[in-house]
Design brief:
heterodimer; A: 728 residues; alpha+beta; Phosphoribosyl-aminoimidazole Synthetase, Chain A, domain 2; 60s Ribosomal Protein L30, Chain: A; seven-stranded mixed sheet; B: 217 residues; alpha/beta; Rossmann fold; nine-stranded mixed sheet; globular
Chain lengths: 728, 217
Amino acid sequence: MSAGAQPRYRELGLTDSEYELIVEGLGREPGDVELAMLSLMWSEHCAYKHSKKLLRRLPVDGPHVLVGPGENAGAVDAGNGIAIAFKVESHNHPSAVEPFQGAATGVGGILRDIFAVGARPIAVLDSLRFGEPADSQRSRYLLEHAVAGIGHYGNSIGVPTVGGEIYFEPSYEQNCLINAMAVGMAPHSRLTSAAAAGPGNILILFGALTGRDGIGGASVLASAELGNGDDAKRPTVQIGDPFAEKKLMECSLELLDRELLASLQDLGAAGLTSSASEMASKGEVGLDIDITKVPLREADMEPFDIMISESQERMLCVVEPGKVEAVLKVCEHWDILATAIGTVTRRPIFRILRGDEVIGELPVPLLVDDCPLYDLEPQAPTAPLYEGGDQRIATDATPADTLLALLASANISSRRPVFEQYDPVVQSRTVRRPGQADAAVLALPVLDVSSAAGGSPVPAIAISIDGNGRRVAVDPRAGAAEAVYECAANLACVGALPLGLTNCLNFGNPEKPHVAWQLSEAIDGLAQACRDLEVPVVGGNVSLYNESPDGPILPTPVVGMVGKLPDARRAAWLGFADPGHKIALVGGFHPSRDGSELAKLQGSAPAGALPAKDVAEIRATHQQVRDGVNSGAFLSAHDIAEGGIAVALAECVVACGIGARVTLPAGLDLFGEDFGTGFIVSGTAEDLAGLEVIGEVGGEALEIGGVLDLPISGLTEAHASGLADLLR
Amino acid sequence: MKFGVIRFPGTCDDVDAQLAAQRVGDAELLWHRDRDLKGVDAVIVPGGFSYGDYLRAGAIARFAPVMEEVVDFAQEGGLVLGICNGFQILCEAGLLPGALLINDHLKFVFRQVELDVVDAMTPFTRECPPKLSIPVKHTTGRYYSPSPVQVVLRYAPGHNPNGSQDDIAGVVNNAGNVFGLMPHPEHAVDLLTGSADGLRIFESIRTAVGERVKVDL
């Protein structure tokens, strides 16, 4: 250590007291490679040291759960022996530094999590947040390049991108959010654990060469606030190669199909260090890894470089000695480099060897379990944390002008300019694409002549991803709960019953009391809503320190949900089906203006109170919508969300190009919001008998009795222009 | 009849093409390294990103061992269908005229497009109605040819997704037995997933192969 510099462990992100614990646990000072490994395993990104205690509040059990939190991805039972594995993860900080590669490798990383558990990835969704695009060249740049990166990876690897969401708020200006969710499918029997097993078994590293990319990404990028000078961090962003991952995926799935592996794990944050130590920890065994065996992309790499490199498209597996040759042969078929780099040992010690020389020797529990967990010190803020933005809609605008302005706003306008950059149909399962329904619908059986439109029922899954930081900022507990209700409502619109949930908790610096309060309240809200709807949490990810010098991001829990439906042929559409059909309002919809899109566009800060929820009514409403869809009574179904009932009706009209004539219940606010509670459905008069019918499908305009009358062309133009104009 | 579907590393729509072909006949996958077409009656070069397509799209795949067999098969009159990346590869291999350039808007585009069948006499379109609704998905789909070509499919007015010359979506070679198109007929074989119009192309191939066997007998 040179004079005046701070100790190496502090540069690597460890505190003085954490370093003391390490010295105490080891009985000596750690060496270079050991310190590098420990600093990463004890980072927020790997150890969840500020969030783990809170996450224990989430319900994780349910009748459909096959694999809960702790493995690379959770999994639920979709019936007929089919398991659905899924998980959402963030890649926020890398994307803020280099959006194309950050977003691309975010997709690559979450896909590896899925095939690491033995499931073939069948869908990607993404949840994105940027600053106000109208004011910010930087936000438009981040959006354009992040979307291109997601498309580049997902399109090239042959996994459809079937859904997602994008919101723009000033708080994400410096710190954008890129959350990617992947969903995979496997027979129950192929689900694979990452637990290393069988002392004497061989550890094989396969896939890309190990280079210097992403060194320290987990600690440098993911576990600290962003600030000025982030360009210097660009070398810590990894570079994605979807072609390499495509081969790696096919190779991994073939290895599992042939039952050649004892366990499988992907290499993500903290590279070999994290993957290997987690495998050892789960299997309660030790590992010897010889770094001279690791195939390198460049010469002169230091041992710690090799151990913490975050080079992409690599996997690690444990193989019985008798099966090594067969494994290498499958890898060769796929042009995948595979190398035996170590062995499983009995004592829970992770040894790093350079040939015969031991250069690191760490107890596995010290690496994986002994990082201290911190209690947060939550404190509700006494003053508002976020300011209002520019006023973009006059408070005295007419209802017609207000509706057009909402439809053209960045947060509500058509997402077509973005989702047209993604392939939603590869793998031939996609029954509802983006823009066609409130949730993506994927058929489970392979479709053939017999399952075509006229044949027998087609069981399917539905997927949605939701989150609204603005409403969580108003009330972290109620806002987080609303995200769960809304996600379930989206599934209900296609007739799907929720099976499980994954979440990504994007928050600011948890060491600050008001951010700790947001996090704690939001987790309580998520936990309550999951219990309310009986949806267990099967996995997820926490992304903290999403702050810039201007302050924390809006608290942004993102919820991804998978449900199942009995017959994809009946999945309801977003748009109305036919002129003459009736339109009904279903559910206890109690809108208010606080935290609404209109309030934002009028310049209000996210403050006030969200509508109270009647959980029994929400449950009954969702069941009613599912039943209506699955019986074939509801041909269209759309939940009312941002922009309120006027926007929801306009979205139905724009989606189908047929007008509607509606009379709203007296006193119902056109633009007030409530999430997960109210639905617009349509069907024949007989099928909607007994419901609160508010109008009829038909004509060339959206007429809301006594309030507004706008031609379809004007609505469509406004809706299409918003995002497209910003991206031009 | 039996279709053969070529699989290069990086091919994505191979299984989709196989499933589509299996709706009208048998279909099996053919590995890029094997110089063996296994006696198939028609070859499909499917979509995807062969060898990653980090060089010009299709530029590496044309050198794959299996492509030597495909070229011989085509020169002997065998029916070859190239879809998207397959179209790019067939152009690179010289089996089809012209080239595919980066889209005029420089981005990947997925869109359900309307197509006009301008030549319904080819072995690939004889069962097709005058209009088809089929999705496109590509970054490099802008067709260009400096000399006249035999156009089979055009994007309907207003549907050109990439700036293709004269709205060209699909062409055949002079002999009429090699067909390349950017739209993905294998993703339009079931109303449940959006459209069944693409199935007509596979049915056309089956009909053409059936007639050819009769003639040969």
